[in-house]
Amino acid sequence: MSLTQVNSEIMTKQKSVALLIETSNAYARGLLSGIASYIHEHELWSIHLIEQERGAPPPSWLKNWDGDGLIARIENDEIASVVSKLKIPLVDVSAARKVPNIPWVETDDTAVAKMAFEHFRERGFEQFAFCGELEFQWSTQRQQAFENCVKTAGYSCSIFTPKTSPTRLLSLKRERNRMANWLLSLPRPTGILACYDIKAQQVLDVCREFGIKVPMELALLGVDNDELLCDLCTPPLSSVIPAAYQTGREAAAMLDILMKGGTVKPLAKLLEPLGVATRQSTDVLAIEDPHIASAVRFIRDHCCEGINVQDVLKSIPLSRRVFENRFQAIVGRTPHQEIVRRRIDRVRQLLIETELTLLQIAERCGFQNHEYMSVAFRREMDVPPATYRRNARKHYEN
């Protein structure tokens, strides 16, 4: 067989796939990294990707696209109208759900909200707020889920959303003043979840302009963990880490099945976030009880030294019964649960950031042995440590 024939055969085997995904934000780039990873491991696809921004109208070439498949962020009615007429396999990676009855994979916004609420509660917050965007369905879903977590726990949640999507300078100033008035009206301290990192950055800018102290008065948490943006914020922004990379891989796997004539069940798949990247914007304790605050600090500082509840009791002037009752009422967990949770958080960090073996990690995190650590980790995270390391590292490396 000649080289020309070989090349011709390779080309006939290639699938032509379009990616209608913007490259302007960290989440979308994570999706693209996951798709690229799947392609490299499984199929040699010919990829068609153009530069575009979120919410942009459909590109002119899309109406006549005659390729083999499409993965798209279908975030407006214009794109939905065009792609729904295409006679090719299609996978949606947007929360907007503009085209029904097609395979769809996205971040689990309920899990994002739950993780954010727990992040604030473990720091002792009892007052909560959410800052969102009207134009994004996922913002509304995160707001509703966060409100539900807060209200289920017996607290209240203040909500701020822009009245419009402002384009004029006057409107921008008016919305900024509305946000400032809202932030100034919030009780202190309050834990605020912003719908994504860009919105959180806007909140931080207003706080700095009006002299609101972050995190002492208002603690702020974003979503997406755009590392460059988070580090450029003042103070650096804590953020929920979505499984964007894994979402991209899952979308590519779905499209692969469809292009081979198979079916995808279930049509919808939601992936939970990987954790919270804690930075200065939420690095605070909002606990008024000085003894419980002291106990939380002791656990935070010594959790990986093999401590138990009795060791914590030595640091505060309370009986065990009084301490455990007050601790659970304020923190929402028993002291033992808090010790284990802190250890698991440290295990997760070491799995991602180091090459340490499970035995070495168990020793550094205060577990009796790596078998016990593995059982505790799986109970908390639903996956074994080795699987978590493999999946999470792909996200961080991309």
TrEMBL record:
**Domain HTH araC/xylS-type, first and last residues per copy:** 293-391
One Pfam family hit: PBP1_XylR
In its UniProt entry, the species of origin is given as Rubripirellula reticaptiva
Matching entries from PROSITE patterns are given as: HTH_ARAC_FAMILY_2 (PS01124)
The record's annotation in PANTHER family points to: LACI-RELATED TRANSCRIPTIONAL REPRESSOR, XYLOSE OPERON REGULATORY PROTEIN
State the Gene Ontology terms under molecular function: DNA-binding transcription factor activity; transcription cis-regulatory region binding
Write down what this protein is called. Xylose operon regulatory protein
* SUPFAM superfamilies, alphabetized: Homeodomain-like, Periplasmic binding protein-like I
InterPro entries in the cross-refs: Homeodomain-like_sf (IPR009057), HTH_AraC (IPR018060), LacI/GalR-like_sensor (IPR046335), Peripla_BP_I (IPR028082), XylR_PBP1 (IPR054031)
